[in-house]
Design goal:
By secondary structure, the chain is of the alpha/beta class. Helix content is about 45%, strand content about 20%.
């Protein structure tokens, strides 16, 4: 029997980020609660519960004081943040950037419009956490419609501003738009805003095509998942021999009789490890399977080099791309951060903050940096001499010192040599300051990322505050500006854009927009 796990299934960016933030906090030993299920998948929620994550509802949230609470990717209404302020609750905000941008758009429109003549309408599931957060931006006055059949109940004599929950069907949204355009009264205004997440919407045609390739399809997702129900129904429409399971134990041996190939796929709330467990369960039931490689691995392999200024989101871009296309991600910045952390731990900085160069040169032979894949996040964690230091190397103290360490020639030579060894077989994504100019000058795809210093400082500030770490905006801005100067003026491999690198200024781009832009550039190069 042949089995293929759909490479496009699994956590979307928003869910991945929320889980990573939860894991980062729990690893520090802090007590952490999540307002509602962090993801609509019981088994993933149970895994995080065993790590120490508790789940609370809004009634419990109101009674909670002096605690740390994570807000999941779905987002929350303004009332939740106000309640947190009153109860001295530290919020770790994991709201998906796409949802957050949508909330801001709706609030801005609501504040501007004439409320006696206009209505905000949201196409979404009533009671869904994301929809509640969107309605909250309008003081509870938005109208929610669940299906195209509900549109006729609207008052078309009023101005209508139509938005959508980010995970709804694109086709049905367009049918609602068409109906509104046909029925809006003369003199009234109708405006629609396509706010459906393309990372989610694009899964529909891909998963339908995937379903037709197999005798049977296992769709793995939690039964609370709205996105999962939509995708499952689409799979079943294209392949009637499709079954929804929430755990491997639900797989029935009778389903496999006479089946030669099985496709395993899932929702944006389905972890990869759960789909792999379903594959293993089928092997136990049948005793004989052959794995089918995904299409991404059939493409020619290239080296992707992403350079740019600090706090531009290079690492996030590189990690997401590597995960999406099945490449190895090498965080070169983390390599220098690990050496810096070693220096801090072993007191290799003098009282003025300068590196004790001779002592560090002697110590370099005792420093081993490496990465190990975190099977739950799908991303590599940083290890210094075999010790997990992923969280420690991201502190502001390390950020303040890393440029001085990275500017030392023998440190760069040692790290560059390791990086070149890692990239010999290609199929890697690497980000840093001199990847496209020094480490891999022949890389097939080079990107140079930039943004204004103020934007980068604000991003870093928001990131640290979300993790519950102390941060001052002015200090971070000063650090960003100092790092820019040091990086661009160092003697060895100064920061500069390679002549054949593509420039990406992401000052005004969302993370999903960056991801879409980068994926398009990647496809162009691998198909060239």
């Amino acid at each position: 029997m042949k089995i293929e796990i759909d490479n496009g299934s699994g956590f979307c960016f928003g869910v991945t980020t929320a889980i990573e933030k939860a894991e980062e906090t729990l690893r520090t030993g802090q007590r952490l609660s999540c307002l509602g299920d962090i993801v609509h998948n019981g088994m993933e929620c149970e895994r995080l519960r065993r790590m120490g994550l508790s789940t609370i509802d809004h009634d419990e949230f109101v009674r909670l004081h002096d605690a740390t609470v994570l807000l999941r990717a779905h987002g929350e209404p303004p009332a939740t943040y106000e309640q947190a302020r009153r109860n001295n609750i530290n919020i770790i905000d994991a709201t998906c950037p796409v949802v957050l941008a949508l909330q801001k758009r709706i609030k801005k429109r609501y504040d501007m419009m004439d409320k006696s003549k206009a209505t905000i309408v949201i196409f979404g599931k009533k009671g869904h956490a994301e929809v509640l957060g969107l309605v909250g931006q309008t003081e509870g006055n938005a109208i929610v419609i669940e299906h195209v059949e509900d549109v006729g109940k609207l008052d078309f004599s009023r101005d209508i501003y139509l938005y959508s929950q980010t995970t709804k069907s694109l086709d049905e949204f367009h049918r609602i738009i068409d109906y509104c355009k046909e029925h809006i009264a003369s003199g009234a205004t109708f405006l629609s805003f396509d706010t459906i997440c393309r990372q989610v919407a694009n899964r529909m045609p891909n998963i339908c095509q995937f379903a037709t390739r197999h005798d049977m399809v296992l769709f793995v997702c939690g039964r609370k998942s709205s996105n999962g129900r939509v995708l499952f129904n689409a799979c079943k429409k294209h392949n009637p021999n499709t079954y929804l399971v929430e755990s491997p134990d639900e797989i029935c041996a009778q389903w496999l009789h006479g089946v030669n190939s099985v496709g395993i796929c899932g929702a944006t709330s389905t972890p990869k490890w759960l789909m792999e467990q379903c594959r293993d369960r089928i092997e136990t039931l049948t005793g004989n399977i052959t794995l089918i490689e995904t299409n991404n691995k059939e493409m020619r392999k290239i080296v992707v080099a992403i350079d740019g200024h600090s706090s531009c989101g290079k690492s996030t871009m590189a990690k997401d791309l590597a995960k999406e296309v099945g490449y190895i991600y090498v965080d070169t910045g983390a390599m220098y951060r690990m050496v810096t952390f070693y220096c801090m731990r072993h007191k290799l900085f003098d009282s003025c903050g300068d590196v004790l160069v001779e002592q560090l040169q002697e110590a370099m032979r005792h420093i081993t940096v490496s990465f190990k894949l975190n099977e739950h996040t799908g991303r590599p964690d940083a290890y210094l001499n075999g010790e997990l230091v992923e969280n420690e190397i991201r502190s502001i103290d390390v950020s303040n010192k890393v440029s001085k360490v990275a500017a030392i020639p023998f440190v760069r030579e040692a790290m560059v040599e390791q990086q070149r060894v890692m990239g010999k077989e290609k199929g890697i994504v690497m980000d840093g300051r001199d990847i496209g100019t020094t480490v891999f000058p022949d890389a097939e795809l080079k990107i140079f990322v930039t943004a204004s210093a103020e934007v980068r400082a604000q991003r870093r500030y928001d990131e640290l505050k979300a993790k519950g770490m102390p941060a001052e905006y002015e200090d971070i801005l000063k650090n960003v500006q100092e790092r820019d100067y040091i990086d661009s003026h160092r003697e060895v491999s100064p920061l500069r854009q390679a002549e054949d690198a593509l420039l990406l200024d992401n000052s005004d781009m969302t993370i999903p927009e960056q991801k879409e832009w980068l994926m398009q550039r990647f496809r162009e190069r691998v198909q060239a």
